[in-house]
Amino acid sequence: VEERVTTTGTAPNDAPSLNLQHALSLTGGSTELLLELAEIFVREVPDQIAALRAAESSHDAKALTRTAHTVKGAARLFGARAVEQSAEQVEDLAKSDDFIRAAPHCRQLIAAICDLCTDLANFTQGDRR
Amino acid sequence: VRVLVADDDPVCLTLLVRLLKSWGYTTIAFSDGESALRELLVPGAPDLAILDWVMPGRDGIDIARVVRAQHKDSYRYIILISAKDTQADYLEALAAGADDLLTKPFDPQELKARMHVGQRILTLQAGLLHAIETTRFQATHDLLTGLPNRLSILDTLDRELARAQREHSQLAVIMGDVDHFKQVNDTHGHLIGDDVLREVASRMQQSLRTYDHVGRFGGEEFLILAPTAGLEAAREIGERVRLAIARTPITTEGIAINVTLSLGVTATPGSSGELLRRADVALYRAKHEGRNRTCVEVSPLVQTHESLRSPLEERDPVAARRRVV
Questions:
Q1: Which residue, of A22, B18, B33, B285, has the greatest Cβ tally within 10 A?
Q2: Could you give the residue numbers annotated as active site of B?
Q3: Residue A97 to residues A55, A64, A101, A110, B165, Cα–Cα distance (Å)
Q4: What is the mean pLDDT of residues B267-295?
Q5: Any chain B CB within 8 A of the CB of A39?
Q6: Hey, are the CB atoms on A76 and B83 less than 8 Å from each other?
């Protein structure tokens, strides 16, 4: 598992997109469970991104806060600091109705989610091989 | 142990369900707060719940508030989980009625330990509820016969009387007293006397309809309440009870004792005080006229009404009032 740990990505900072060691500690050491969670996350990502875009473009502060919060929770599970940090910024800005500053952070968040998604897909496919 | 889990994020929900299953819990999972709350309010729902704080519709803190406001008879232990992690959040969760708050991501071992805390609290709570139930039973029941005690049967009389008035229906009150009970005690001792009372109580209960009530009114005195019964039906109930006791001797400690019962019957209209007084008058007459019998005392209102219709009875109002069975 160690070998598959990836820290690459186009996220705005050096924060890792995925920390498998951390994630494994949260599944009680079960790689099988972690794989299942990764697959669920990847499957849900299109909906998640669509929800973020919809809430951001319609200036729905409540929905944007909630969606960013949910993404933050899942990101923490995978030790995905980049997603977590972006999500937290979006959540805070949405909470204070600041859609002007939220917009770029929202784009950043979506990019970070995509990176995490790639890493998780590599992880799950790597396991099948 | 059954646990209800609610989280709108499928990743977290799956993680929770899988971890709980691996520790031997049975889970009921929901991805929205509304259905989780509906399930929690049903009697027999899991008494342990793990709820995500932030969910569309009803969030976890909302659910905790509603459950706390509605559930008085049994306890639901609620653990909130959230990516919120300031002290203010923690205090808000506890104030809303959550028992515990875990921040995402939670350490599995910590969740496991906190589940044990929850179970410990629930066990204590169940013991407490059981103790309350026992105390309540003891306060309202006669410990010798297991029947409702005097206070409790009088309470039932008031309730049944109010219901009869509301539903324009009748209610019969029957007072029964064991004949020469003092002799049983004097001859065979108090322990045998207790056995006799227990057996009388049991035979009474068996000869009543399911919706009738019987309570121990005093030493060897019992009070029967028969909802919907008028005088005639009540007299039949009284006779059935009397025969159930007189027909077969009560056998205890190898001794067969012939026991009989005198009964006084009356029925609505009347206040609870009037009904009790009339049943007592009828019982007194049953004793006076030789015991082991059922006497009826009619309401003065009914009596007047009947005498207007029946000239024969009008001529002899005393006989009309004292219809001995």
A1: B33
A2: 220
A3: 12, 10, 9, 19, 62
A4: 95
A5: no
A6: yes
* pTM of structure: 0.65
Does the CB of B221 have a partner CB in chain A at under 8 Å? no
Task: Please write the tens of the pLDDT for every residue from B65-107.
Answer: 999 888 667 789 999 998 877 788 888 888 888 999 998 888 9
Cβ contacts (< 8 Å) between B56 and chain A: which residues?
Answer: 66
Q: Are strands B213-216 and B221-227 parallel, antiparallel or unpaired?
A: antiparallel
**Whether the Cβ atoms of residue A80 and residue A117 lie closer than 8 Å to each other:** no
DSSP secondary structure string for all residues of B155-203: HHHHHHHHHHHHTT--EEEEEEEETTHHHHHHHH-HHHHHHHHHHHHHH
pLDDT classification of A127: cutoffs 50, 70, 90? low
Say which DSSP state B106 is in. Answer: P
pLDDT at residue B324 tops 80 = no
Q: Closest Cα of chain B to A70: distance in Å?
A: 6
- Average pLDDT rounded to a whole number, residues B131-141: 92
A104 touching chain B per CB within 8 A: no
Here the tokens at position B149 are 């005690």
Q: Does B83 touch chain A (CB under 8 A)?
A: yes
Angle between helices A31-57 and B10-22 (to 10 degrees): 150
Residues of chain B positioned with their CB less than 8 A from the CB of A73: 9, 12, 52, 82-83, 104-105
Whether the Cβ atoms of residue B240 and residue B143 lie closer than 8 Å to each other:
no
How far, in Å, CA of B70 to CA of B308, rounded?
56
ipTM of the complex, rounded to two decimals: 0.81
B196 contacts B259 by C-beta, under 8 angstroms: yes
Compute the distance between CA of residue B306 and CA of residue B259 in angstroms, rounded to an integer. 36
Residues in chain A closer than 8 A to B84 (CB atoms): 69
